[in-house]
Amino acid sequence: MAVSTNVSFLLSSVLAITTLAASQTFKSQLAETKGMTILGGGVSSLFFMFVLTAIGNLEDILMGKGFELQLIPEVAFALTLSMAVAGSIHRVSITCCLIFSLVILYFMNSISQKTYGVSEAAPVKVEKKKRR
Question: pLDDT at residue 121 above 80?
Fold first, then answer.
């Protein structure tokens, strides 16, 4: 079930704030053991996904349909922000957040390519003339 861009922006913003609040509330529990530290990185990578979705929807609302997220300003900002959240939990969570966020980014890109199907240029067929 697809929702409009405005609703998607609102939902992703609320989920990002909720994820941030939960990670900060349970900061001490997430930093206790190795497994929980990895979970802290996973929660921070979910924060990355929600922030990136919110940024993309906001740009779509403000700049019109067809505006794409770029690697340097938007993705780098969301990744830096999520790694800062992971750093507030534990140092190891930063590394886990980076790895999980890159995996999430890969799958978000593949889903986007399947959904919106950016057409690639058709290969040009070059015919060689036979010499007589």
Answer: no
